[in-house]
Amino acid sequence: MAFIETINLGQRREGRDILKGVNLTVERGEVHALIGPTGAGKTTLLRLIDMLDRPNTGKLLINGVDVSMSEKTKLETRRRMAFVLQKPVVFNLSVYDNVAYGLKWRGFNRNQIHERVCGILETVDLGKYSKRNARTLSGGEMQRVAIARAIAINPEILLLDEPSANLDPVSAARIEDLIRKIIKQSAITVIMATHDMEQGQRLADKISVFIDGEIVQTGNAHEIFASPRNREVAEFVGMENIIDGVVVSNEGNMAAINVHGKTIEAITEFGVGEKVSVCIRPEDVTVALARMPSSARNSLAGMISWTAFSGPLCRIEIDCGFPLVALVTKKSAEEMGLKKGTQVYGTVKAVSIHIIARH
To answer: What is the pLDDT of residues 21-35, one digit of tens each?
Structure first.
């Protein structure tokens, strides 16, 4: 039995389906990331799990109990949760009183509150700001206050909505480090909505991809980013090479796929004549100036059509009769003299290629 489970959860607003039959399961102690474009329904789902809103259809089960059974059940369950919003909400009080707020409501005595709040302020590195009005802090500091207030009550479930959005890179990194510390120090169950896919990969045990109000794929980071279920997911997770083709042969699941008159070999169960899309991550393309002796089944000749440097990396597009984007280190690009017009070979292993149906 899953700790948190939504069954056919739906939400309709102003004549539009925001969520469409969402089925989500989260195990106790799991960190589950919801990723997807803006407006996909991530925040709406978090609000339903926190019982701030009521779904139009479906059920929410916490530890097997339908939380809509009674107001008492709902209240008891909500007291076990904490929700940190995308835009940090802080009260017009000192940092100390902000963090102590939930503890006072729960009847903790002054000594208990002081010990807990001081400990948490040290955890979030805000001890020296305890007497400052929380509304005078920076955005990143206010977000840390909001997180500190949330974890002060020792919740079983922590909901995070874009916890590092709209922050500068340094503040965002500090928030992520704080979340990682909280996860490591406690057995808390976390559901976080994020548009930062790398953050989802770094923090989450499981990832669900939201598109147009539906969960279209759930899995670990490798399954989501290396084996997207369809073109929508592939495009969203940054699978830059999505090349249409047709399977021309398949022997023992080693298929030959005709792509713009060239053949790409990949492992797939798709049969002869089926229309497919070949998905290749740029980092799986090896670039060389000459055809290399290799066990890789695909060596595609072409000319570099553009290059773009970004820090220690260089992104290269090779015109092979179709565009093939590769990612190499800046050092390699400089040593090989890779630039527009250079003739190169892009090599890809069959096992690195993911095949999806083309509709």
So the answer is: 999 999 999 999 999
